């Protein structure tokens, strides 16, 4: 008998679509040895399986009936082949365009409609499942990537039809208590499967079962993604990772109609703030630490660091967002200790798929987008994907400059051989946005003015563009070892033309501004190479990762010109805009800057599985950063650091993990001591313990974590000379986080989070010890849930509802002002039918005034958007 111990039925796709492995965690199955298995059983009980190949001579009808034997006499299932047809191997790829199931008096029939004649597949029995692999075929359904039905008739647990590599389509039919009897017949334009539930006749002792673990791909409508790669740089089940990691999947991005990365991050505990273009005071706080998105992350794109983040991170080609909590230098080099955000992008599919969408909304939002993918060769080895979007949107603030953005991202994948894959990619973004430094502070509060009020000129603007070119190469050396190599080149240009607010007089209420312009250029070259291997030392299993990261950054401050001779003043409470803009082209530029930074990292990691209950992850990385100022050589500096991490996972049962970890991170300090020496790098260390549980038959994941992070060598004023600095400051953040994501009932999804964070100064020569860190509320949390009607006349109609809360925050390290808490309510209405989807989202339903991010007393306090509506129409085929 087959017993499914992992709780996510959609992961059965992985069972039939991927090789078996005996790694701990993930999907666990018990397979009775009394049935013949289409697998190879090694001496150490590891299992493997391969797609069932089509025989040289096929038949128009194939039947498989399980043969049951006494427990101690396992034997093969009997497969009967009738009426040889001599069709031979097919040379043309046949598309399966429709799948229909119908209940019969004794079982069911499954009809596959195709563009031509399909080859008759051989049938094999694996545990309680009958499996048939159709060669030279591709599943191309109009509204989904696979056909999946659970409990279609009594005695049948599920039926799954899915694409496999090498142009195979797998039909997997799993019985409840025994494998079904299956008969397959082919016609000129399709294939018919007839099935009758089997009957179990032999019981198997618990101590005789074989434990098998597999991982599977995420089905489109899932909120829970069972595996993630960011925390270990290997595809690892979330339960096996000794660290908090949250994944915002594609379905959440679609349900919430996410247009910005930071809007998606409201679904993750402990993340507060805004991610925006440079100069718009983007500041994200992760676990209480506000990170510098310009030079220290925390944004990665497919695991590659974006060193200088000039532009908006477009989300059109993002498949999911993975957020790694805590110090992460061990795998990605210099970073703040709060965490890392990895944007995982979409890759080509082996079958045609097209998604066309138009979004419209408040303040003139218009956003058409396309997502196209499919094979470019008949054998499916060459495939493409193209994402493109254009966006125009006015601002809810008092700007004349609108946001305009154009983005295109083509990707080409080539399966060079059965073991070697090459992916070529490009991204290009061109955008213009308003220059919005937010509002100043009066007393202990941000100025009380309408949220559309600005302290710059309405026509101030930022223009930027970014080009990314790269490739990923993967080679499977053998069944146990893989070589990976990747490269990215990122070129960014950035320019602003603004009235720069540099002072605010709280007595006169005047903002003093200076007309200025600035141009930046950044060129970034990133190389990654690693090897991943699986091997055993006795009964202990290892997944070894070793690699090298190299980054060459070339930054050019082309010019920065500020007209200090002609200040302009603006009464923030009674503004009069339109001050004639002076010509700053004749102003002598401030000292231009050209810098070079060479970063090298070498890392080693071993994921050690001692048993089904115990996993140990040990990691170590060495980094060096060689920074050179080509204009001012005295600013040159060299830093290096070792960053360790060790974590342990204990799983008393397959669906429950207890974990603990210790990790360190580092970040260069750009300041100098009284004797001219560079400051020591900031060093951080973090402790974390937590619990992860798969609930409701594996459809729901809950993560509860406690963390304690200390950042040392923080730059602070030299007590002997306040114009100089020393690296003696210290900050500490402690807290608890809870994240829940998944499916409660069929059609009812949820993603929820809560964080309590106490982040404070523990040593400083300027600010008081005990002061709270800015932008770090004690309490924050969110809830989003959707329900889609599953059957009847209203099938496909869905509703969404969500709330987000951010508590009171301190505005600066000196704690001179506060930003009030806020509570937002959001809702959604959508309807899906066949290829079409209509969506309507309502954000900030009660039009609450609030501030997304806070920074300092003069600027950086950014109002949040008022009530808005986003509507969409999309078609997928």
Structural class: mainly beta
Shape: globular
Mean pLDDT: 85
How many helices? The count is 4
Strand content: over 45%
**How much helix, percentage-wise, in residues?**
under 10%
Report Rg. 29 Å
Write down how many β-strands occur, each being a DSSP E stretch of 2 or more residues.
56
Main β-sheet, in a few words? Answer: 22 strands, antiparallel, barrel
N-to-C CA distance: 39 Å
List segments where confidence is low: pLDDT < 50 over at least 5 consecutive residues.
1-61, 63-90, 201-219
Structure description:
The protein is built from four helices and 56 strands. The model is unreliable at 1-61, 63-90 and 201-219 (pLDDT under 50). β12 (147-153) and β13 (156-164) form a beta hairpin. It has a 22-stranded antiparallel barrel. It starts with a strand and ends with a strand. The chain has 877 residues and is an all-beta fold.
Explain the layout of strands and helices.
Layout: E1 2-4, H1 12-17, E2 27-31, E3 40-41, E4 47-48, E5 59-65, E6 78-84, E7 94-103, E8 108-114, E9 123-126, E10 129-135, E11 137-139, E12 147-153, E13 156-164, E14 168-175, E15 181-187, E16 190-196, E17 210-214, E18 227-228, E19 236-237, E20 245-248, H2 250-255, H3 261-264, E21 271-274, E22 283-286, E23 289-291, E24 299-301, E25 304-305, E26 318-325, H4 329-332, E27 339-345, E28 353-361, E29 365-375, E30 382-393, E31 403-415, E32 420-434, E33 441-442, E34 445-446, E35 461-476, E36 481-505, E37 510-537, E38 540-562, E39 568-571, E40 593-609, E41 614-629, E42 637-653, E43 656-667, E44 682-695, E45 700-718, E46 721-745, E47 748-763, E48 779-788, E49 797-806, E50 809-810, E51 818-819, E52 822-833, E53 836-843, E54 851-853, E55 862-863, E56 868-876
Parallel strand pairs: 7-11, 24-27
Antiparallel strand pairs: 1-2, 2-17, 3-4, 5-6, 5-15, 7-8, 8-16, 9-10, 10-14, 12-13, 13-14, 15-16, 18-19, 20-26, 21-22, 22-23, 24-25, 26-27, 28-29, 28-56, 29-30, 30-31, 31-32, 32-35, 33-34, 35-36, 36-37, 37-38, 37-39, 38-40, 40-41, 41-42, 42-43, 43-44, 44-45, 45-46, 46-47, 47-48, 48-49, 49-52, ...
